Amino acid sequence: MTTTVREPPPLLEHAALIAPLHERLLEVLGPLDEAGWRRPTRAGAWRVRDVAAHLLDGQLRALSFRRDAYAPPPPDTPVDGFRPLVAYLDRLNHEWVAVSTRLSPRVLLDLLAWSGPQVAAALAARDPFAEAVFPVAWAGEERSAHWMDVAREYTEHWHHQQQIREAVGAPLLEDARFLRPLLHVSVRALPRAWAETEAPPGSAVVVHIEGESGGDWTLRRHGAGWTLLEGAADAPAARVAIGERPAWRLFFKALADDEKERAITTSGDPRLAAPLATALAVMA
């Protein structure tokens, strides 16, 4: 029996999830006391208040650049590749967080309560197939459709809210309503993870994410790169599997190396299976 694999379809569900996802964020932040806002998170030195400020920054930028077509000031040094772009974005992020220390938690919460619905409406209003203002670089794209840009925004909102939820002991957003859309866009990072892996043309690697929110994808070697397909190819050179919970942690830098070893199972050529451990759906 031959399994059908196909090009992954456009992801159009994320625009409708931005608003309810933001509501869940406000539900977590609203009751926090001062100590809760100061709790450390997985995001390096950032506390809960810093992650919340970073989310606010992203929303204000989304309104300015995407809704209002405001041209951001150019970088003061050339950004001529992925690593320089990551360094530039890191600097912008840390500059904002530093300034935000002048704002009280109440002010941050009030601003988020205003900006969230504005962003949700603005992202939903655009033609999903129009060209996005910025390409999704972690997916290896040089040009992106708006639907992919919205899906990227969703991953940002979701994984930073997870960091806050973990820090304050709130339930994680792991139900299929929110997790399945996250994983189905995060796998778009897989071709970039395999980019430096050599294999004969036509070679296939199957990636299986176990659980209600998971699925099967195939990476197929073509020319000098890899193409992502939906479905599991027959007779792949390697097969790699991971559960849905460790999968999201892997994609968003929340899975330690020893946890990766326990979470990922492989068969076939181990060299072709190894890149999954490096896959990231963030700019890092």
Describe the fold and architecture.
The chain is an alpha+beta fold and 284 residues long. The chain has two domains: 14-173, Four Helix Bundle (Hemerythrin (Met), subunit A), CATH 1.20.120.450; 188-278, SCP2 sterol-binding domain (Nonspecific Lipid-transfer Protein, Chain A, 2-Layer Sandwich), CATH 3.30.1050.10. Helix content is 47%, strand content 11%. The chain has eleven helices and five strands, in the order ααααααααββββααβα. It has a five-stranded mixed β-sheet with strand order 3-2-1-4-5. Helix 1 (18-29) packs antiparallel against helix 5 (105-125) and helix 1 packs parallel to helix 6 (146-168). The termini are far apart.
List the main descriptive attributes of the protein structure presented here:
single chain; 284 residues; Four Helix Bundle (Hemerythrin (Met), subunit A); Nonspecific Lipid-transfer Protein, Chain A; 2 domains; 5-stranded mixed β-sheet
Note the topology:
Layout: H1 18-29, H2 34-37, H3 48-67, H4 82-100, H5 105-125, H6 146-168, H7 176-186, H8 190-193, E1 204-210, E2 215-222, E3 225-230, E4 238-243, H9 244-251, H10 257-263, E5 265-268, H11 270-273
Parallel strand pairs: 1-4
Antiparallel strand pairs: 1-2, 2-3, 4-5
Helix pairs in contact: 1-5, 1-6, 3-4, 3-5, 3-6, 6-7, 7-9
> What is the ordering of alpha helices and beta strands?
HHHHHHHHEEEEHHEH
- Provide the CATH topology of the largest domain: Four Helix Bundle (Hemerythrin (Met), subunit A)
SS-derived structural category: alpha+beta
Strand element count: 5
Corresponding CATH superfamily of the largest domain: dinb family like domain
Q: Which percent bin holds the helix content?
A: 40-55%
Give unreliable regions as ranges.
none
Radius of gyration: 19 Å
**Outline type:** globular
Structure annotation, total helices: 11
Instruction: Label the CATH architecture of the largest domain.
Output: Up-down Bundle
Strand arrangement within the widest β-sheet reads: 3-2-1-4-5
Distance between the termini: 40 Å
Mean pLDDT: 96
Largest sheet: 5 strands, mixed
